[in-house]
Every structure is written in structure tokens, then in C-alpha cells.
Amino acid sequence: MEFQDFFPVWKDLTPSQQKKISENIGIRSVPKGTVLHNGSQDCTGLLLIRTGQLRAYILSDEGRQITLYRLFDRDLCLFSASCIMRSIQFDIVIEAEKDTEFWIIPAEIYKSVMEESAPAANFTNEIMADRFSEVMWLIEQILWKSFDKRLADFLLEESAIEGTDVLKITHEAIGSHLGNPREVVTRMLHYFQKENIVKLSRGTVEITDKDRLREICGEK
Predict the structure, then answer these.
(1) Residue 146 carries which DSSP code?
(2) Fewest Cβ atoms nearer than 10 Å: which of 33, 46, 66, 94?
(3) How crowded is residue 100: how many other Cβ atoms within 10 Å of its Cβ?
(4) Which of 146, 143, 168 minimizes the C-alpha distance to 155?
């Protein structure tokens, strides 16, 4: 499938706008672990994912990470082109969580199209609103939800993403997603294991009782 099959408002652009994008986009493949964007001074361009998975996170002065959101096939990453969004005052890191292939739209090209095209501007604003909603939801979780509930919710989400109950993920990686030290994650996972909710082995967390996780999350 081609770029136009992945870009939702392609048919709403004029031929000249389509040509401008077509002549300037590039396609790139990166392995898992590649950092694609690092901070507000790094204006990489907009990324439209063909296949794979990206993670957007912020990094504290002490080196702690917390995941803001993830991006999957057909998702458009805006924050990798933060130079066209003057209201962005914080640094976001974009990293490939899996081997990923994506198109890059140069920031200045997309900005010029967005200034000419109401459908492109509306589409961009909708994505921006969705991303900030995800960030606000995360803040609410951190402020008001206990860590056992956040961890249970993360394990269920990770299981849904990977399509398996056997998660190949380290305690440190979970801590990076949730913004908590590895030791805190380990203690809670050991508690879950004592309760027969998960089974732990090196680099793996196996979910053995999803119903209990849902109960902890308050879904049942």
C-alpha cells in the first residue's frame, strides 16, 4: 500500500498539494530501539507509520522515563515536528518499540500544506487534541490511581497489544513506561505472583489470571 492509502485526508488535498507532499516524502526503516526524535530542538518531520510501533516519552533530569502514548500502523506522529507547533514547551523523545517502517513528511512541507488546506489543518488539530487527551488521562492516572491499578492496567494493555499473555518485558522497561523505579515494579509484581495473578521468569511476565487484573483495575 502507498502513502495515499495511509493518509486519511489525501483525497481532500488539491493536486498541487498532493504533488508537493509526494515529491518531498521519504520512507525509512529502523530497528527496535532507534531514537527517532529527541527533544523540542530536534525537528525530524512528521512520521506516518506503515508498520511497526513507536513510543513517545518524556525524560526527567534524573533519567526517569514515563510513556505518554504509543503509535501504531497508520498513526501520524506530530511531536516529531515540534518546530511547527510553537505551543510545545516540553521535550518529547520518540523511540521505535519494534522494527518500524514509516514515511517522513518534512516539517516545512507539511506546514505549508496545512496553511493552505482546511481538511489537513482540521485533521492535524484532531490528532493534537487526541494526544493531549491521552496525556491528561495519564496525569489523572498518576495523581489519583494507586500503583497496583496502574500496573494491572499496563499488563492488560500490553497483552492486548502483543496478542499474548506471555510478555517479554523487563521490570525496568515496565518502570520506564509507568515512570516508577524498577524496585517498585519488582515489589508489586512479586505481590501479584504471590496472589497467582502472574508468573515471573527472567525477562518475562506471564499473566495467569486476567480476571484478577481486571478486578484490580476496577473493571469488574
Answers:
(1) -
(2) 33
(3) 24
(4) 168
